[in-house]
Amino acid sequence: xxxxxxWVPRQLVRRRLRHPCTREVLDDALLAYFPPGQSFSxxxxxxxxxxxxxxxxxxVLAALSDARALFDTPLRPAAPGEFTRRAFEHGRMDxxxxxxxxxxxxxxxxxxxxxxxxxxxxxxxRLYDTLRTQLLHSMASIEAMLxxxxxxxxxxxxxESAQAQVREMRAYLAKQLQLxxxxxxxxxxxxxxxGLRVALYGQPNVGKSSLLxxxxxxxxxxxxxxPGTTRDIVEASIEVAGFxxxxxxxxxxxxxxxxxxxxxxxRTRSYVAAADLAVLVCTPDDWATLPPAGPTWITAQEAAQLxxxxxxxxxxALPDLILINKMDTARQEPRPRPATLxxxxxxxxxxxAHEQGIDRILEDLGAWVTQRFATEARExxxxxxxxxxxxxxxxxxxxxxxxxxxxxxxxxVAAEALRRAAQLLGEVTGHTLxxxxxxxxxxxxxxxxx
Length: 450
What we know:
The chain is an alpha/beta fold and 450 residues long. It has three domains: 13-77, Probable tRNA modification gtpase trme, domain 1 (Gyrase A, domain 2), CATH 3.30.1360; 97-177 and 383-443, tRNA modification GTPase MnmE domain 2 (Four Helix Bundle (Hemerythrin (Met), subunit A), Up-down Bundle); 188-377, Rossmann fold (3-Layer(aba) Sandwich), CATH 3.40.50.300. It is 43% helix and 14% strand. The chain has helices spanning 54-66, 82-89, 95-105, 110-120, 123-147, 152-176, 188-194, 208-216, 259-274, 300-305, 358-377, 386-403, 411-429, 437-443; strands at 13-18, 25-34, 45-49, 196-202, 234-240, 243-249, 277-282, 294-298, 321-324, 343-349. It has a seven-stranded mixed beta sheet, with helices on both faces. It has a three-stranded antiparallel beta sheet with strand order 1-2-3. A hairpin with a 6-residue loop joins strand 1 and strand 2. It is flat. GO terms for molecular function: GTP binding; GTPase activity. Residues 95-447 form the MnmE helical domain.
């Protein structure tokens, strides 16, 4: 397809590409040759940088297909993820880097991009290698106990050392996996991958649907003057401070005998209980004394009158934020409140119908998200895939088996528990794999070009 015979490695050159049979010029392209060991995959590679029109790409691929007989090795299209898989098989990438590349290709938000880059720069793999090395050291201690079983002093010292190392690792993994941590305390990794949920709740006709539409910049929810219009959860997603945030307009909370509306309110309570952030929407008429915007204090009686609730049955819990909407209709001026009222809260003022206060709401949401995950965002994540979590849970189970072994007894069981834990850690990075199907599942998610 080109007349060039000698290639200078890793040098970009401009050449006309011709059809090998008809000699028709297909494109004026840039070409680069990478010798074995110097390309992305580790194989000898010739990159064609074509003009991006679909006809150009299609005709060049067709010409390559027509030219198969001219090559010693038949040409064929790459399978999904084949270039990355070859890079893994040639030792140029470990499995965590491969998964991070896939995550980067599919990243939709800035937080997902940052997470993928943190996992793909080698630091995550080094974390797993360090854990595996520590386990191998503990295994060496147990093996020494088996070899010198008659020397009690050696046994006691080695056993206590191995127990301390494994106990410390178990605590570290439990923290990373958030074992025993309430579900409300989301990790940066989980929030980046799954997004955050913000519930808008309150009485009917306080402007929840209008607020959702304004924040989403589209008509996601039906707005009506009739109370009880929203009877199910209406969601819309936006990006806030690099995170995907799902806003939820919920059914208004009030006394009613309508069974369908009651079902909607039940769903509201469940959604609010599980949300990462609960925003109570109300109006100036709901307040005897209107509080100022920003950090303030409210009484328990005011909270009860507003129907404040975070979870079903938890009537005394405060919302994360209170939005006083329709401030253009307020018949009183906000007044400062003393801290003696007892309940700290953060209040927004807005007139959603007039698009007043929307920018401030988005700014404060961004500040909340940034502050919530500021520390974790700078740390190298250990768990970025469901596969990692499943394997690490099995590792924790192996460590528990080891820690349950009485001192000086069942050393074979203890050694086997650590050996299995080390193997599982190796499976995360691909150093040890118990099934070839794991690779097929990972690389099948890639696009053809990778």
